[in-house]
Amino acid sequence: MKLGVVGNGKIVTWLFRDVPAVPEITVTALCVREKSVEKGRELAAENGGLTLYTNYEKFLSEGDFDTVYIGIANHMHYQYVLRALRAGKHVICEKPFTVNAAEASELAALAREKQLFLWEAFKIPYSPVYAAVKEHLPEIGTLRMAQCNYSRISSRYDQYASGVVLPAFDPACAGGCLYDINVYNLHFVTLLFGRPQKLHYLANYGYNGVDTSGTAILEYGDFYAVCTGAKDSTSPSSCVLQGTDGYLQINGPSSAPESVDLVNNDGTVKRLAEDHSDGGLADELRVFASQLDAGDYASCYAMLEHSLLMMEVIDEANRAMRP
Known about the structure:
323 residues; 14 strands; 37% helix
């Protein structure tokens, strides 16, 4: 996989940190906005002298790569993915996939039509912890409750509180807790259990109407899932799946779970799996490169179907928040 990277934010710096662990991937080019050209030059120089672009169309038409990695503000995902697909490029797009289900559906249809790979980058399904949860879930008996809490005060919250609104807290940029933090909890739950029968969402709002924290309640008939996320406050982050015979304790946030324990009703505890990637991107990148090399569209498109479902859940959460 030859990769052209779009963006210069924190997630892009993490990509550059982790991609050397995936020898199947070579990064050849970087595209940034004109106002970020100095930072772009630094990133390009630090990562092997990448070809630097400030014009996206030129990047797509001239760049020596087959796949575009998009790590920019949420509200820009749709347009940048659309243009890359039209240019015949495979695409890795950071979560959230798009702003709504209509955008996601259009992009997925275009990828299939042009027989291109299209991945949403979120680490959960590529974690050994998630794999262990899925495998051992039947051992806790009949599921009665699922709880996920991912709460971490944003590094940009002080600026927001002082009146400086960056994209992370700008509703016009699809900022806020639902798209940034709670989306991971919702991904985790819907990966395991699919579409909920009904969804409720309660949010705390900032002075500009953005949701700074919130809780989703998903109804699955015989059990409930509660997903809480916060960018305005911090608490221990974990997930618990409670059954009639015991529970699974997932340690760490749903975005990057550290380990999972099976706790039986008799009090015995068994460590099932650990993830030592420290939230890194290498595992998912390795899967994407492998699928591309093997021409494994089936696996890619199966996960794409989950991304479409996820955006429908996000639409429902938005309707519940803002009737």
